[in-house]
Amino acid sequence: MTTGVSSAKSPFNASTERVERVLCFTAHPDDIDFGAAGTIAAWTAAGVQVSYCIMTDGDAGGFDPAHRDEIIEMRAEEQRRAAALVGVTDIHYLHERDGYLEPTHEVIKQVVKLIREIRPDVVLAMHPERNWDRIQKSHPDHLAVGETITRAVYPAVENPFAYPELAEAGLEAYKLPWLWLFAGPESRENHFVDVTDHVDAKLAAIRIHASQHPDIEGMERTVRGMLARNGERGGLPAGTSAECFHVVSVNGTSTIAGF
């Protein structure tokens, strides 16, 4: 299955690359729906297997003090329902504390384990670089996701001597083809996915996270505007909605072992 409209800078040729399994890492429930639910809906509609890994429980989210005792369960249920709307049922949690996520070896090892288990064609994650134009995209947990995943993807996932207990347990080293990052600086974006046919599914998924959005109508206007602007920035036809990514070739035709 192919997805995307590549800019001149993108290493990913959407007309030739095949994607069958995708593993997505985010910090909190709802991050993936804001960042990539349209692309994910397109993937699953084409038969791609997509899995989520939410690295914290989102326990510091929300606005209503009355929800404190139940916020973890509430957000997990919101994420389950939102994921189902875009064709995803496989959801993993690392249960880190919201606001305290760090790229420790304990966390990196869990990520390496999951990547080796699923062996995806694409790992999709939040960007490790801060977005100064829209700093809300760069919650410290978001940046920690990006750094954790980047460290895991290279070299640990493909190094049989990194976390050797994983290989001893039967989880062999794996060379990941592609890393897709979102929510980073616009200057890094090199790949735009036409999600025009999946905007309604994306917005429906975001609406499920009602505990996080006191102004649903304002949120929808903002998201629609961002998607339209992405289409313009990506050079897509007028009226196109798009999601944008920084795509990195981790192991491709130009890769030399060890470099």
Q: Give the termini distance in whole angstroms.
A: 28 Å
Number of strands: 8
CATH class: Alpha Beta
Biggest beta-sheet profile: 8 strands, mixed
Tell me the β content.
Answer: 15-25%
Assembly state of the chains shown: single chain
**Whole-number tally of structural domains:** 1
What would you say the CATH architecture is? 3-Layer(aba) Sandwich
Residue ranges: pLDDT <50 for 5 or more in a row? none
Instruction: Identify the overall geometry.
Output: globular
Helix content: 25-40%
- Radius of gyration using CA atoms only: 18 Å
**What class, by secondary structure content?**
alpha/beta
* SSE succession: EEHEHEHEHHEEHHE
Pfam families: PIG-L (PF02585)
InterPro entries: GlcNAc_PI_deacetylase-related (IPR003737), LmbE-like_dom_sf (IPR024078)
GO biological process, one term: glycoside metabolic process
Organism: Arthrobacter cavernae
Feature tags:
single chain, 7 helices, 8 strands, Rossmann fold, globular, 259 residues, 8-stranded mixed beta sheet, alpha/beta
Write the layout of secondary structure elements.
Blueprint: E1 5-6, E2 21-26, H1 31-45, E3 49-56, H2 71-85, E4 90-96, H3 105-118, E5 122-126, H4 140-153, H5 164-168, E6 178-182, E7 191-194, H6 199-208, H7 216-233, E8 242-249
Parallel strand pairs: 2-3, 2-5, 3-4, 5-6
Antiparallel strand pairs: 1-7, 6-8, 7-8
Helix pairs in contact: 1-6, 2-6, 3-4
Task: Give a verbal description of the structure.
This protein is α/β, with parallel strands linked by helices and 259 residues long. It has seven helices and eight strands; from the N terminus they run E-E-H-E-H-E-H-E-H-H-E-E-H-H-E. It has helices spanning 31-45, 71-85, 105-118, 140-153, 164-168, 199-208, 216-233; strands at residues 5-6, 21-26, 49-56, 90-96, 122-126, 178-182, 191-194, 242-249. An eight-stranded mixed beta sheet has the order 1-7-8-6-5-2-3-4, with helices on both faces. The longest helix is centred in the last third of the chain and has 18 residues, at 216-233. The protein starts with a strand and ends in a 10-residue tail after the last strand.
